[in-house]
Structure formats: structure tokens, C-alpha cells
Amino acid sequence: MIMFVTEALFLVFIAIGLIFNALGVIGILRFPDVYTRLHAETKMTTFGTIFIGLAAIIYCTTAFISTKDGQYMDLGVNVIVIIIALAFTNATGSHAIARAAYKSGQMPEKAVVDKLSEVSE
Amino acid sequence: MPFILTAVFAFILYLIITSGSGDVLGLWSYEEIIAGVIVSVVAGAISGRFFCSNKNYRMANPLRWVLLIIYVIPFFIEMARANLDVAMRVITGKINPGIVRVSPGLKTDLGVLLLANSITLTPGTLTVEVDEESGDLFVHVINVNEKLAGKEIADEKDLFPIFNLVSWIRRIAE
Amino acid sequence: MITIWFMVAGVLSALILLAMVRLVKGPTAPDRVVAFDVINTLTVGLLLVIGIGFEELFFVEVAIVYALLSFVGTLFIAKYIGGEL
């Protein structure tokens, strides 16, 4: 029973991860300007990769419980470190790209309201 | 003080990464622990003055780290909601973007960093610029409704509808 | 269960190729940086999946280092585009 539940959860997490990664890539191909592309990029690919990492953690935990091999625990802990590193670096990186795009003179397309342009001039 | 804090942080990180390698306490081998002590002392000596550059030792309190770990739960729920929202927008192509100003009133660098990262990963928003003097954030929102467009300074409630993440961050970092 | 990991690796590689369309096409430099960032994130995921699939720790450790170094690369390109370098 537990075996079945973990396996189902594992497959669901992998499916969610792949779907969100695919939507992120489709998003950067479809959206009209840099800022909206950054929305798709940062949220979708980070979320998708986090879910693939969670599936990896589930796999490593079940393997560690059934075989008692320290190698699986090592793998799982490293995956947790990757998830934390990705969540922090992706958000900060996209912030840097957005700031650089604004400084290089790209205005957000179809913007309803732009409070930053009132300040920076 | 910066040296000791950085060395302890590096050593804990080393222990986390190498867990499962041997028999001490069931997790680590003696070789890894000795190598970890040497490496973390070197790391503390070299990078201590960068790691603790603002002479602010609030994060040395372990309680704040526990709060930071608990913070993951409301953050993750907001993030899942945001992702479903943006996924719908990727499929339908309905966008209504704009840049609004938020004034959270956080003073420490770490608080502003955490909030900017949380905003970037949550509901259809993306931090574009930080006003260094007042700590105000300029946020690109993918769907600006009329109420938000009329306001001079947007509320936190408009950005995080489910949980009040700003007060969480204030409790963690200030 | 092992073969699933390699199927996932294949899908991720296809997504990386798809993201390269934006890298080649992108009208402005920031667009290309966005595509580059997507490719970095997907590469970290790909290394992770391959590491679990082969049950080899080195891939996963390389993924950690790659995530941190690609972040530094993105920051530098962003600074350059913003005219601060």
C-alpha cells in the first residue's frame, strides 16, 4: 500500500515538474516582452525543477529505507541543497535581468501603469 | 566574530552535504569531519569580512532559522497559486501588465532581499527596482486590475492575498 | 523506476533545444539573457536527473556548483547590459 502511494506520488511530482517546465519554455516563446517572459521563466522553471527535485527526494528516501545504503541519503541531501540554491539564485538573477532591461531603455509593452518612470526621470 | 560565525556556518553546510558518508553518529566518517574543519576554518578566514559585512548579527539566533524554515510552508502555497495563475496566462495569452510601487517598510538588507525574492517567485509579480533610501520596491505585475492601477502606493494585501508574507519576513529578519 | 529518469532527461533536453529558439531569435539582448537563464535552470534539472538515474553523486555535486556559477554569470551579463560595468 505504502509502496503504491509513494510510487503514485513520485509519478505525479514528475508529471507536474515536466508540465511546468514545458509551460515555462512555451511562455518565453509566446509572451510579447522581456518582463512578461521573465514572469514565465522565473516562476515556471523554478517551480518545475523544484518538483523534479521533490520526486528525486521521494525516490532516494524509499531507496534508503529499503537498502540502508548511505549513498542514497547523500544524494537526497544534495538534491535539497540544489533546490534551496535554485530558489534563491533564480529569483535574484531575474531581478537583476529586469533591472538591466529597464536601465537599457526597454519599456514594458502594453503597460497600464508605470510608477517607476515617474520616479526615475 | 565574523570569522567564527562564517566558519561555523561553513562547517554546518559541509556536514549537511556530506551526511551519509560514515559511522560517527551514524552519518559521518572521521575523514570528512577533519576535512570539513580545515576547509571551514580556511573559508572563515578568507570570506568572513564579506559574509558579515554589515556588522549585523541578528541571523546568528537559531530561532530565526527555525522561523525561516517554517516560512517555507505559506510561501510554497502562495507560489503554487501564482504558478497556476501564470500557467493559465501562458495558455490563454491574456495579460495586462504594469509597474506598481510597494512600500513594505523593511529596514535590513536581508529583509529586503527575502521580500524581493518572495515577490519574484509569487503571484504574477516581479521586482524590477529597489529604492535604496526608503526600501520601496517597484514591482512588475502581470495583471493590473483597475483598483491597483489607481493607487499611488500599492498595499501588501494586493500582492499576497492568502498569507501576510510581509509580517512573516519582518518577524524573521528584523 | 530507473528508466523513468532517463525519459525525464530526454524531455528536459528537448525543452532545452526549444528554449534555444528564443536564444537565437530574441530581438534584444535581455531576451537572450532570459533564454540563457531558462537553459541554465533546465541544465541543473537535467544534471540532477542524470545523477539520480546513474546513482552517481558527482553529477549532483556538479549541479550545485553549476547552479551557483551560472547565477554569477547571469549577474555579470545583467550588469553589463545595464551599463554598470
What does it look like?
The complex is a heterotrimer of chains A (about 120), B (about 170) and C (about 80). With about 120 residues, chain A is mostly helical. Chain A is built from 4 helices and no strands. In chain A, about 85% of the residues lie in helices and about 0% in strands. Chain B has helices at about 1-15, 30-50, 60-90, 110-120, 145-150, 155-160, 165-174, and strands spanning about 100, 125-130, 135-140. Chain C has one domain. Chain C is flat, with a radius of gyration of 15 Å. Chains in contact: A-B, A-C. Chains A and C meet through α1, α2 and α3 of A and α1, α2 and α3 of C.
Counted up, domains of chain B total: 2
Beta-strand segment tally of chain B:
3
Rg measurement of chain A, Å: 19 Å
Low-confidence stretches of chain B: none
Cα end-to-end separation of chain A: 64 Å
Q: What's the gyration radius of chain B in Å?
A: 20 Å
Report helical residue fraction of chain A. over 70%
Helix-strand layout with pairing:
The complex is a heterotrimer of chains A (121), B (174) and C (85).
Chain A: H1 2-30, H2 34-67, H3 70-103, H4 115-120
Chain B: H1 2-17, H2 30-51, H3 62-92, E1 98-102, H4 109-121, E2 125-130, E3 137-141, H5 146-150, H6 156-159, H7 165-173
Antiparallel strand pairs in B: 1-3, 2-3
Helix pairs in contact in B: 1-2, 3-7, 4-7
Chain C: H1 2-25, H2 29-54, H3 57-81
Helix pairs in contact in C: 1-2, 2-3
Any key phrases for this structure?
heterotrimer, A: mainly alpha, B: 174 residues, mainly alpha, 2 domains, 7 helices, 3 strands
Give a brief rundown of this model.
Chain B is mostly helical and 174 residues long. Chain B folds into 2 domains: 2-53, no CATH class; 59-173, no CATH class.
